[in-house]
Design a protein that fits this description.
Family (chain A): Belongs to the binding-protein-dependent transport system permease family.
CATH topology of the largest domain in chain B: D-Maltodextrin-Binding Protein, domain 2
Strand order of the largest sheet of chain B: 10-7-11-6-12
Shape of chain A: elongated
InterPro entries (chain A): AA_ABC_Transporter_Permease, MetI-like, MetI-like_sf
Radius of gyration of chain A: 21 Å
Order of helices and strands of chain B: HEHEHEHEEEEHEEEHEHEEEHHE
Strand content of chain A: under 5%
Order of helices and strands of chain A: HHHHHHHHH
CATH superfamily of the largest domain in chain B: Periplasmic binding protein-like II
Oligomer: heterodimer
Protein name (chain A): D-methionine transport system permease protein
Number of domains of chain A: 1
CATH topology of chain A: MetI-like fold
Helix content of chain A: over 70%
Number of helices of chain A: 9
CATH class of the largest domain in chain B: Alpha Beta
Subcellular location (chain A): Cell membrane
Structural class of chain B: alpha/beta
Strand content of chain B: 15-25%
Number of strands of chain B: 15
CATH architecture of the largest domain in chain B: 3-Layer(aba) Sandwich
Shape of chain B: elongated
Helix content of chain B: 25-40%
Number of helices of chain B: 9
CATH superfamily of chain A: MetI-like
Largest sheet of chain A: none
CATH architecture of chain A: Orthogonal Bundle
Keywords (chain A): Cell membrane, Membrane, Transmembrane, Transmembrane helix, Transport
CATH class of chain A: Mainly Alpha
Number of strands of chain A: 0
Chain lengths: ~220, ~270
């Protein structure tokens, strides 16, 4: 193959298969991360409230939430995707395609982020919290104005870590017809003996991770 | 002293016993020991070979594998004598990729039944515009699925860009059908979520309890994907291989096959 021929061949795959899959991956990742941040934050707040050194310690409630978080985290993501498919069908209406993949990805990412957010907020100096309390701050004010504010750099770096972890998880969503760059790398690259597609996809995944890390680091510095 | 001599006596007896066993085994024709490989689905068939061969003095050991290419690799390396696992076109590709010579013993045993299935539509003509059709995403099955769609008149294919047909090679798609690539076991499971799926009767009936005979369109290439006993080509004419195929094609075992697989696979006449 001459170079222009190869370029045309590459473009055919890039334009027809790889480019749409990049968007599919980004849509799945951003939707599931946003939803997981929302739910994860809610759970993290509960853990912080009821935890051993929490604002309103309640060991039994804490144990229940803690157990729930741990049990979801014990499922490998691909098992989670297939195991909760009846639930997915109930909520999303289908078990295959992008929308159907976002649900299990969110379910998997929520406890992961909840843990990260909980740990970040727990690292806040207790004296700061005591000080805020002595000024008559409510629990909600302490969480939003002291803990979240103080923990923000850790929250940002933790979320970056989670985003990169779940970028690799989206590659598994290809199993349920959600497409995405990981599925392309496997089916059109590795299994089709097509190194062009395989390595193009790998380079794109590499760039995605670099961009995520770069953005995370930049935000971290900005906040610090 | 006495204890020692007793121990020595036992030891000598045991050693003699071991020798005897060794001699006996060497006497019972080494090539009458066979190891056959299979996957979960083909395990009953290998059992049937064992049932057929053991009264004839063969010792048959069965090994089950859980990944598609493992039995063929073990056969090529000489760790197995025969396998029932992959279809013949797959084996020919495997031969090319690994520079080996595996072949299927004639007469071929059975073939899988690949077809278009649907729970939403009764006929091929009912498949609407913008229909979603789920297909297995791995390249060989994907390629085969696209050919089925072309044969069914739903799409037309242009020239192959590579070894396998992919969605890139679809030339005309008058109904604007969207093809959803899924993992092969997921394809059958998604039958209620899409307009149609392309899958083997085996998966469709295992995953959804759907009658294998309720297909909309049968893959005309089905007969080309022969399954059966695969051996290294020097064993093609081996006595045991012939006896194995005689067993599988005998009337009682053909009946067992039909009872066991209930139309999920089709026997060659």
């Amino acid at each position: 193959m001459t170079f222009p021929e190869y370029a045309a061949y590459w473009w055919k795959y890039f334009d027809g298969i790889i480019a749409p899959s990049i968007w599919a991956t980004l849509r799945m990742l951003s939707a599931s991360m946003l939803l997981a941040l929302l739910f994860g934050f809610t759970i993290a707040v509960l853990l912080i409230l009821y935890g051993p050194q929490g604002l309103r310690p309640a060991p039994n409630r804490y144990k229940v939430i803690d157990f729930f978080v741990n049990s979801i985290r014990s499922f490998p993501i691909i098992i989670l995707i297939v195991a909760i498919s009846p639930l997915t069908r109930m909520l999303v209406g289908t078990t295959i395609g992008e929308k159907a993949a976002i649900f299990p990805l969110t379910v998997a990412a929520t406890p992961f982020l909840a843990r990260i957010l909980e740990n970040s907020m727990r690292a806040v100096n207790p004296q700061l919290i005591e000080a805020a309390r002595s000024f008559g701050a409510s629990d909600w004010q302490i969480i939003t104005r002291v803990m979240v504010k103080e923990a923000l750099p850790l929250i940002v770096s933790g979320t970056t870590l989670a985003a990169i972890t779940f970028l690799s998880a989206t590659t598994l969503a290809g199993a349920v017809g959600a497409g995405g760059i990981g599925a392309v790398a496997l089916n059109y690259g590795y299994q089709s003996f097509n190194n062009t597609v395989l390595y193009t996809s790998v380079i794109i995944l590499f760039i995605m991770v670099q961009l995520l890390q770069f953005t995370g680091d930049w935000l971290y510095k900005k906040i610090l | 002293m006495q204890v020692l001599s007793v121990v020595r006596k036992w030891f000598l007896l045991a050693a003699a016993g071991l020798c005897l066993v060794g001699v006996q085994q060497a006497g019972a024709a080494v090539d009458k020991k066979l190891t056959l490989g299979c996957l979960a689905y083909s395990e009953p068939m290998v059992q049937w070979i064992k049932e057929g061969l053991e009264p004839l003095g063969y010792q048959v050991k069965i090994m089950m594998f859980d990944a598609n290419q493992l039995p063929a690799t073990a056969l090529k390396d000489g760790n197995l004598d025969g396998i029932i696992a992959n279809h013949r076109p797959w084996i020919l590709t495997f031969n090319r990729e690994n520079d080996c010579h595996l072949e299927m013993v004639k007469p071929y045993y059975f073939h899988s039944f690949f077809a278009i299935y649907s729970t939403r539509h009764k006929n091929l003509e009912d498949i609407p515009n913008k229909a979603q059709i789920a297909v297995p995403g791995d390249p060989t099955n994907m390629s085969r699925s696209l050919i089925i769609l072309e044969e069914a008149g739903l799409i037309t294919l242009g020239e192959k860009t590579d070894i396998f047909y992919t969605v890139l090679d679809i030339k005309d798609n008058p109904k604007d059908i969207s093809i959803i690539e899924t993992e092969i076991t997921q394809t059958a499971r998604s039958i209620n979520d899409v307009d149609a799926i392309i899958a083997t009767a085996y998966f469709v009936s295992e995953a959804g309890g759907i009658d294998p005979a309720s297909f909309l369109f049968e893959d005309p290439q089905n007969k080309d994907y022969a399954l059966g006993l695969i051996v290294r080509d020097e064993d093609l004419e081996a006595e045991w291989a012939k006896l194995a195929m005689d067993t599988l094609h005998s009337e009682p075992y053909r009946k067992k096959f039909q009872e066991h697989f209930k139309g999920k696979y089709t026997l060659y006449p």
